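Section 3.1: Structural characterization of target chains.
Under the original work plan, the team committed to producing a structural model for every single-chain target entering the pipeline before any wet-lab resources were allocated. The record below documents one such target. The sequence was received from the expression subgroup and is listed exactly as submitted; it comprises 81 residues.
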Amino acid sequence: MKTLFSAAIIAAVAAPAAFAAIPPMEGSLNFNQPIQLEKAPVGSTVLHTFSDGSGHNVNEVYKVNADRTVTLVNRSISNES
């Protein structure tokens, strides 16, 4: 019974992570297609800042994967316009 309960808790915690991916927006590095970085070390993070068109600054943090593609892990948008 403990094994079943533990498996249920692990599944409940792991499931939201699969659906929590941040969708790219216009201006994101991977908006239209995946990109590959040649010089960034695998596992490192890359900061990307751009304007969203309405005067807000968007800061995104990407993680460099083993295949040199990037995964968006965090996004913040300034309240200033």
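Helices lie at 2-19.
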